[in-house]
């Protein structure tokens, strides 16, 4: 019997994956003096969705290694990756200050599911690869702080998704078994993490993750939700069938 719903944040409750992708794309474009275009970065970003910041930067560094080395005048990988992180954080911090912009990126149907789960007395958990300050700002803006029984972020684990550590930590904190937890994710790496934790996973797709989620063949189509208006009925239909 499902007793807890565990939600990813970026791309699941708020479409910050699009904003994050844009911040990385603009950072690399600026660092390479436009030798790498913003769209080039966006085209490959889907494979890094759901990973920790460090792994995203590692992946992008490898994708655009020659251009970054040429324009930054360095072959020191740590130096280059630090430059990417610093430039990207500067851009993303400016995005996070724009409350009106963030509000336009809320995911209403996933938030509807979260509110319903809270109303129905399920445990509601946030498990995100964002760091705590960013996660706190997002859940405060969305007005869901008091709906969450537990918030886990990248700062709480040693290994990021697709490792299942964050989901295992959630179920242990709630003193639940894996089959009592249902995960809501949007990315291949998040899905892998939930499945590796032995949990049922529903995927909510978006423009950044839809193709990779379907082509990843990790979930049966019954657990992939492209039409988000159907999310609550699909999830609660599954829960009721399990009881």
From TrEMBL:
Answer yes or no on keyword Magnesium.
yes
Spell out the InterPro entries in the cross-references.
Answer: Beta-PGM-like, HAD-like_sf, HAD-SF_hydro_IA, HAD_sf, PGP-like_dom2
Q: Which cofactor does it need?
A: Mg(2+)
Q: Is Lyase among the key words of this record?
A: no
Database matches in Pfam families = Hydrolase
The record's annotation in Gene3D superfamilies points to:
HAD superfamily/HAD-like, Putative phosphatase, domain 2
Any single GO molecular-function term of the entry would be: metal ion binding
Keywords for the protein's UniProt record, in alphabetical order: Carbohydrate metabolism, Magnesium, Metal-binding
Give the family this protein belongs to, as stated in its UniProt record: Belongs to the HAD-like hydrolase superfamily. CbbY/CbbZ/Gph/YieH family.
Q: What is this protein called?
A: HAD family phosphatase
- This protein's species is Ulvibacterium marinum
